[in-house]
Amino acid sequence: KAKHSGRATYAFYTQELTLYAQQRVELAISLRQALLKEELRAHYQPIHDLDSGRLIGFESLVRWQHPERGLVPPGEFIPIAEENGLISDIDLWMLEQACLQMRAWLESGCRLKFVAVNISSRLFNRGILDLRVAEILARTGLPAQYLELEITESTVMREPEVALEQLQRLRELGIRLAIDDFGTGHSSLLRLKRMPVHKLKIDQGFVAGLPADSEDAAITRSVIMLAHSLGLTVLAEGIERPEQMDFLKRNRCDLGQGYLFGKPLPVEQLAQALEEIRETDTCSR
Ligand code: C2E
Ligand code: MG
Ligand code: MG
Ligand code: MG
């Protein structure tokens, strides 16, 4: 009897797994077509200077406008794209979109400082990212200083020596570099010291508990001090409540990003955010 129910359970799981695997295969195939059919969308989330409150840049975040499923968030398709390598094509497409968009914003008189683009470990570790970035900058005509690449701490620390070389080549192009999700990837301080980056982005997991959670508060304060002692800019992600922002301002965090300032939106819906910086004279026209 036990054997029988065991087999039944086994059969049940096999069916479940097959269905799951089947769905992943289908998703992988339709994702490949999504790139060709231009179903991917770049959304942009505002980044503010905490001291002045001003909008100073945007982070681009990919979405999939699926014909049946609607807007699919990256958490649902990036893991699959990472498995089959499609993520590199997605990242390069996003990179080009962001450069074109930033150029358009600058040409319309917006004095934004940068647009940030996420880079997967797959693309980063191929060793040709600097060549691709140089091509895209040349093709889109965006001056290098306006582009920032976000590489996660775990990507950078996977093979630190290789990462160091790639980061140096990227830096030579004149672009900016940020370490994303900082605090989740086991950096050694010695290695961090040698990384030629401009910015640390404190993971939203530490910002969530501010200001009440004493551990989150202690970690956040330490990362801000660490960044500043290394001469880096520091940004806090996932700011949703005014108390979190007050804590971060009190502790001299430079930049902030989160729903309190604005959610990621398609360009058509950013007019209002951009209008605000026109009023404060960050846009010249
Ligand atoms: P990330 O780069 O750390 O991006 C921040 C994520 O936090 C975004 O999720 C953003 O929508 C979300 N977020 C921003 N403010 C808040 C807030 O106040 N509260 C909460 N709860 N969440 C907030 P999203 O857009 O779903 O992206 C998730 C992750 O997917 C990104 O994390 C990034 O690792 C990856 N990703 C997104 N776009 C791309 C891309 O074009 N290429 C690659 N390689 N990865 C991407
Ligand atoms: Mg990011
Ligand atoms: Mg992050
Ligand atoms: Mg993240």
UniProtKB/TrEMBL annotation:
Parent-protein residues present: 349 to 633 of 633
Keyword list, A-Z: Membrane, Transmembrane, Transmembrane helix
Domain EAL, first and last residues per copy: 24-278
Name of this protein: Bifunctional diguanylate cyclase/phosphodiesterase
Membrane listed as a keyword: yes
Lineage summary: Bacteria, Pseudomonadati, Pseudomonadota, Gammaproteobacteria, Pseudomonadales
